[in-house]
């Protein structure tokens, strides 16, 4: 069965997404930047209202450049953020990612994976900075590092445009890492993406004409749950 993860850029949208039935929340701030680390209290308030919903927290400081290069001091700050969230006992996982010279930045990733102490870790859409011809190789690197998931649009501007690469990545994942399909996912295209990629997780900010739209979440949940009831869920062949 597929699942729906909602990217919430504020406490308000996270609460609405949880109320609308989302399977998981990615909690962050700053939608214009792709997301930064949210306030600790946002997590605590969300979990107080919806204790059973899994919440993965974005760990990302304002980027000094466009390729997610951070100094040792900035990495220390992000490691400390992970420690603070872990102390609450409420966080379910973390979302972060680093790319260097068109490849997964292994050393920076290791630093935060170690700080996360075995919690679920998703490599975020920095993966789409990697050339599409190198994505299959770099997916293997993420597996070896121990990431549980990677969020990607298949190297394209939207998941629909990257559908063929996403399908290949799902096949190559071998069930050892989740390929989370994200990038312009809406109620109008979620069926196409589920059928075309057979990914287990779909990721959306659930944006309507006026911003976040809880009815968008409900509509996508109807589709996702329909797939779970009506289809035998198989990974695609090559």
Automatic annotation (TrEMBL):
InterPro entries from the UniProt entry: CutC-like, CutC-like_dom_sf
Keywords tagged on the record: Signal
Superkingdom in the source lineage: Eukaryota
Gene3D superfamilies reported for this sequence: Copper homeostasis (CutC) domain
GO molecular function per UniProt: copper ion binding
Keyword Ubl conjugation assigned: no
Signal sequence region: 1-18
Protein name: Copper homeostasis protein cutC homolog
